[in-house]
Design a protein that fits this description.
The protein is of the alpha+beta class and 167 residues long. The protein contains 6 helices and 10 strands, in the order H-H-E-H-E-E-E-H-E-H-E-E-E-H-E-E.
């Protein structure tokens, strides 16, 4: 997880929620008890919040032609690596080394947020997100989600929108 300032530690905020607050974006935080034995972080979040899995999005870090890229896709599906590479003008994509993803974003696996990352990475938001008034993404730690408008997420992360998820 990213280092927190004293103010963040006192308020209980994460770099993601601090970034949202600083940007003046409307959002709702959803906390739930994370079960380390659950096989899927995203599906666990959807179940715990009682939200349809097509509205809960996971943040994945991939390596596209030697550069890290963030993909935000529904937890109900999987990432189409070829489509991701195409969306960012690349040729080949593979899932990033988990340690590199954690080091670069400042978050731990299962808690990587597209917001408030240590190093801002190019981001692709699956086009399906735009069909919803709000979506949920990690707020920066396991057991904590943030619900916001997909347009706000795209604006804050400077994301391009493209169909990068498979059912």
């Amino acid at each position: 997880m990213a280092k927190k300032s004293k103010k963040q530690q006192q308020s209980g905020g994460t770099p993601a929620t601090v970034a949202l607050t600083a940007a003046g974006v409307a959002y709702t935080v959803h906390a739930y008890e994370h079960d380390p034995a659950h096989p899927s972080y995203g599906e666990e979040a959807a179940e715990a919040m009682g939200v349809s899995p097509d509205r809960v999005f996971k943040t994945l870090v991939a390596d596209v032609d030697g550069s890290l890229v963030v993909a935000v896709v529904p937890v109900a599906g999987s990432l189409d690596l070829k489509a991701l590479a195409t969306a960012v003008g690349g040729k080949r994509a593979a899932m990033a080394d988990p340690a590199a993803a954690e080091r670069t974003t400042g978050y731990v696996r299962g808690g990587i947020s597209p917001l408030g990352q240590r190093k801002k990475l190019p981001t692709v938001l699956d086009a399906s997100a735009l069909r919803h008034a709000t979506i949920c993404v990690s707020a920066g730690r396991r057991g904590l989600e943030v619900e916001l408008a997909p347009d706000d997420l795209a604006r804050l992360t400077e994301a391009v929108s493209a169909p990068v998820a498979r059912a």
